[in-house]
């Protein structure tokens, strides 16, 4: 399989992975808040595959979910702000464990501040319910990154010349 075709398939699968895990929502102890599994998955994808592949997969995910009616423009806004902050964090500071821990919660924080501006509500009202999810994102991002990195090394694009 040639490199370009493999990259196309891999990016499509990453977009699907982001989309599907976005539907996995775990309730937290704060009423009205939940942890969305796609956040640490997205951080791991950015850490393993780099910003370009991550942002393309994220855009494809948002377009797909929007066209299916599963997301509104506000959902897309939140997701894209999150992705940009995570990507810029890793582009500026590297893909080290500390950055992986902080990138997701920072992305959520900035996305909530932008959402507060969009909705014309106090940011603290949106940030406080997000804190448990931000902590879970930080906690889950590192092991998911390690798992995704190991999987990519074992079966990923480094084997273009081998039978898959």
UniProtKB/TrEMBL annotation:
The lineage of its organism: Bacteria, Bacillati, Bacillota, Bacilli, Bacillales. The chain crosses the membrane at residues 12-30, 42-67, 99-117, 123-144. Keywords: Membrane, Transmembrane, Transmembrane helix. This is Uncharacterized protein.
